Automatic annotation (TrEMBL):
DUF3417 domain location: 13-122
InterPro entries, per the entry: Agluc_phsphrylas (IPR011834), Glyco_trans_35 (IPR000811), Glycogen/Maltodextrin_Phosph (IPR052182), Glycogen_phosphorylase_DUF3417 (IPR024517), Pyridoxal_P_attach_site (IPR035090)
Record key words, sorted: Allosteric enzyme, Carbohydrate metabolism, Glycosyltransferase, Pyridoxal phosphate, Transferase
Protein name: glycogen phosphorylase
Superkingdom of the source species: Bacteria
Cofactor entry: pyridoxal 5'-phosphate
Source organism: Streptomyces ureilyticus
Biological function: Phosphorylase is an important allosteric enzyme in carbohydrate metabolism. Enzymes from different sources differ in their regulatory mechanisms and in their natural substrates. However, all known phosphorylases share catalytic and structural properties.
Database matches in NCBIfam families: more_P_ylases (TIGR02094)
């Protein structure tokens, strides 16, 4: 029978065990081994049955067992120690509090993301973006960075994945009851649940409660629209992650951005938490937060332009996609209908909102509202998530800064990192603790001190190899259990499944491949030459085995076909003991998969992988990477700790099938000729000495680089601190000053010209070290020299006379205006490089409150006629 109503019955803990509740409600347990061990000791069987979720565990422990623990002095001492440790962790000074410039750092940062992967017990993530956001919060907590996370609470999460008998992906959406999750409601002082509300067209409203997840020191606010005050349609706004049509997604993103700012204000009012000085938008989904902050400032007598400057100063925008198709875009009429006097943000003109997101640049779609474009226009600072992705992003968004070379587009990069305490296997941690001590190992994983990682060099080869086998054996056990469950879901009976006991071998080279399944990640590249793959899997002396996992988006039938193709190959009785597909890839599976693999395979179409952090998690466990030079691997690859799959760049890149064939062949060759022999070749002591040395180099050299702690420190130093300084400088008076100045410059810019350029050089050849004199006449129209900077840009030139590695030198005013209103600028030009060399002159706007000279997207350069006449380029 089906229940007509559902309740959550909470356990009543004996008074002596009350600290268990506090420990369970702080998600630090998800990365703190001692706390997890404490919960496991409460009831090992129920701990396993609860899938290592303390809240579920405490809901299922018998009253008798609780009474027994309340009298267990040893357990109570452990409980008191864990509670004291948590208190020290959340209240004591950490890295952030010890910085010399701490007074200049932001008092608080609000971090917005559409998904957060904190733990499998709180399934609010779909893939890399959410896991990265979760790791960002955890690392911020470890470092003491005063972050406030903001997201949505999806009642169905993303989806659970199973397979049909013929290998087709099936989606299931279990209902998540917030009362059964490690969450608590944010409440007003009178005890009523706090709410935020958005105005919708037709005099309707969208209301949401605010759930709080405590991630160590960091509060994470999750908005939930499933409240009685909403109509049925509005209750479903936060039903699924990345579900529904355009209007559904728009409402989700309005709730995340606008409602999220209101939730932060409510949280700070109720708790006394410092108000954020910096707002960080993790991808464009939360971009509307900037509009809400502009709307707030409209009540402080700031007009739109001044409020925009005030908001931009304290906003950081991170883009995660290297392809336009990965960005949310909405029809302009749909956006217009949800804003203005009859809907949300009534004090802002709808046309001003639309201008922020419209693709008003060459190649753009003029009727589409682009969330990433809005994020860039609302953020004074922006970044990609790897060095290569920063370059790709500058190319992709260069239309927003016309006249500038892509390298000058103001988008920097902070390479992603991963939270080691979450992803490093306990066995790896224990080996490190034996070598350098538990506290020093923990410090290495959170702060990233390289001297701690250097200690890996002292670990004996035998210990490393034994550890790798233990982890591989654990993965084999995990795979067999999951494969058995998967086949039962596919309809198989016990009599059919005896073969699973022989799946995988703990002494065979094990390759892992697990990620989302869009086409560019090329799940099935390994199947391009099936006979060659068969030879690899079944080699009599050097076999390989492969574990594959991944989810396709529910609407992506192409991705589902790739999964089906892989599954059907893996079902072949000839190879099913050597290659497996595991459905329902998520955090719990990943924490077993990364440590247990010897090789982590990644073969995307370059350069479409923004970062690719799964390989980082594998590396922290001593797994070697075998990857296309894309994302983070392009930045940090060295032959000492992995292999680079050659890519078919150039003409072959335009022929997709030929490119796949060439790159698959390169992959097979690496496995056959270099990877497998190195794993199986044994030295005098019977160990694969060269392989073990690569594992050691991976841990020593990559370990400190791939940490989320390193990433968050970079965000603090390079983005958050400058944004906080800019925010403090942008008081109402300064905001009005900058807005007025920008308006004046934009109006006057069409009359800004480079009129004449002359140099002291008499020929088109010169010696290295020569210094020339430049004299430039410019027209500034209604502007003054204080409004601009005149620069000489010089460097090597390519075959088309384009400067490829330019250096900009400011020229100084030397006189003017003449009767025709022209100003004279002069300066030296040093010929500091040999070979084809060239220079040009340009004029840029300049103001003390600009973060970048490219901020306005305005530049004046010599006309083609002037270039020809002046002989600006030399050889």
């Amino acid at each position: 029978m089906k229940a007509i109503r559902r309740f959550t019955v909470r356990p009543v803990l004996p008074e002596a065990l009350h600290p268990l509740s506090d420990l369970a409600r702080n998600l630090r347990w998800s990365w703190h081994a001692e706390t997890r061990d404490l919960f496991q000791s409460v009831d090992p069987e129920r701990w396993a049955a609860s899938e290592s979720d303390p809240v579920r565990l405490l809901g299922n422990v018998s009253p008798g067992r609780l009474a027994e623990l309340a009298e267990d002095r040893r357990f109570l001492r452990r409980l008191a120690a864990a509670a004291d440790d948590l208190n020290d962790y959340v209240t004591g000074d950490r890295w952030y509090q010890t910085q010399a410039q701490s007074s200049e750092l932001p008092a608080a940062i609000a971090y917005f993301s559409p998904e957060f992967g904190i733990t499998a017990a709180l399934p609010q993530y779909s893939g890399g973006l959410g896991i990265l956001a979760g790791d960002h919060l955890k690392a911020a907590s470890d470092l003491g960075v005063p972050l406030i996370g903001v997201g949505l609470l999806y009642r169905h999460g993303y989806f659970r994945q199973t397979l049909s008998r013929d290998g087709w992906q099936q989606e299931h959406y279990p209902v998540l009851d917030p009362n059964e999750l490690p969450l608590s409601l944010l409440r007003e002082e009178d005890g009523t649940p706090s709410q935020v509300a958005l105005a919708l067209p037709g005099e309707k409203s969208l209301r949401a409660r605010i759930w709080l997840a405590q991630v160590g020191r960091v509060p994470l606010l999750l908005l939930d629209s499933d409240v009685e005050e909403n109509d049925l349609g509005e209750r479903g706004v936060t039903d699924r992650l990345y579900g529904g049509g355009s209007e559904h997604r728009l409402l989700q993103e309005m709730l995340l951005g606008i409602g999220g700012v209101r939730a932060v204000r409510t949280y700070c009012r109720l708790t006394g938490h410092a108000r954020p000085e910096v707002f960080h938008t993790n991808e464009g989904h939360a971009g509307f937060l900037g509009l809400e902050r502009i709307h707030e400032l409209s009540y402080e007598d700031l007009d739109f332009d001044a409020a925009l400057e005030a908001v931009r100063a304290g906003t950081v925008f991170t883009t995660h996609t290297p392809v336009p198709a990965g960005i949310d875009r909405f029809d302009r009429e749909l956006v217009a209908r949800h804003f203005g006097p009859e809907a949300e943000l009534p004090r802002i003109e709808v046309e001003r909102i639309l201008q922020l997101g419209m693709e008003t640049y060459p190649g753009g779609e003029p009727n589409l509202f682009n969330m990433a474009v809005m994020g860039l226009r609302l953020g004074q600072r922006a970044n990609g998530v790897s060095l290569l992705h920063g370059h790709v992003s500058r190319e992709m968004f260069s239309g927003l800064w016309p006249g500038f070379d892509p390298d000058e587009v103001p988008i920097t990069s902070v390479t992603n990192g991963v939270h080691a305490p979450t992803w490093v296997a306990p066995e790896v941690f224990r080996l490190g603790a034996r070598q350098i001590g538990a506290q020093r190992t923990e410090d290495a994983m959170t702060v990233g001190a390289s001297d701690r990682w250097d200690a890996v060099a002292e670990i004996p080869d035998q210990d490393i190899w034994e550890l790798r086998r233990v982890l591989r054996e654990q993965l084999v056990t995990e795979v067999r259990e999951r494969l058995n469950a998967s086949w039962r879901q596919r309809g198989a009976g016990s009599a059919e499944l005896g073969w699973i006991d022989g799946v995988l071998d703990p002494d065979v080279l094990t390759i892992g491949f697990a990620r989302r399944v869009p086409s560019y990640k090329r799940l099935t590249l390994m199947l391009r030459d099936r006979d060659r793959l068969l030879d690899l899997l079944l080699h009599p002396e050097r076999p390989v085995q492969i574990v594959v996992a991944g989810k396709a988006h529910p609407a992506d039938d192409g991705g589902k076909r790739l999964i089906q193709e892989l599954v059907r190959f893996a079902d072949d009785p000839r190879v099913r003991h050597r290659i497996v597909f595991l459905p329902d890839y998520g955090m719990a599976m990943a924490q077993k998969l990364y440590p247990g693999c010897d090789i982590w395979l990644n073969n995307p179409l370059r350069p479409l992988e923004a970062c690719g952090t799964s390989g980082m998690k594998a590396a922290l466990n001593g797994c070697l990477n075998l990857s296309v030079l894309d994302g983070w691997w392009d930045e940090w690859f060295q032959p000492d700790f992995g292999w680079a799959i050659p890519t078919a760049d150039g003409t072959a890149a335009t022929d997709e099938d030929r490119r796949d064939d060439l790159e698959a062949s390169a992959l097979y060759e690496l496995l056959e000729q270099r990877v497998a022999p190195r794993f199986y070749d044994r030295g005098p002591a019977g160990l694969p000495d060269r392989w073990i040395e690569m594992v050691r180099q991976t841990l020593t050299l990559l370990g400190p680089k791939v940490l989320a702690g390193r990433m968050v420190r970079e965000y603090v130093e390079r983005l958050y601190a400058p944004a906080a300084r800019a925010h403090r400088s942008m008081d109402p008076s300064s905001a009005r000053e900058l807005a007025t100045w920008k308006s004046r410059v934009r109006t006057a810019w069409p009359r800004v010209t480079v009129d004449h350029v002359e140099t002291s050089a008499a020929t088109t050849t010169a010696e290295l070290g020569t210094t020339m004199s430049l004299r430039v006449q410019v027209g500034l129209g209604d502007l003054a020299p204080d409004d601009v900077e005149v620069q000489a840009v010089s460097g090597r030139v390519d075959a088309e006379d384009r400067i490829t590695d330019g250096t900009a030198i400011p020229l100084k005013p030397a006189g003017g205006p003449d009767p025709e209103g022209r100003w004279l600028y002069e300066g030296p030009l040093s010929l500091d490089r040999t070979g084809p060399f060239g220079y040009t002159v340009r004029i840029l706007p300049t103001h003390r409150l600009l973060a970048s000279s490219a901020e306005l997207g305005l530049v004046a350069v010599p006309s083609e006629e002037l270039v020809e006449a002046a002989g600006v380029l030399m050889r």
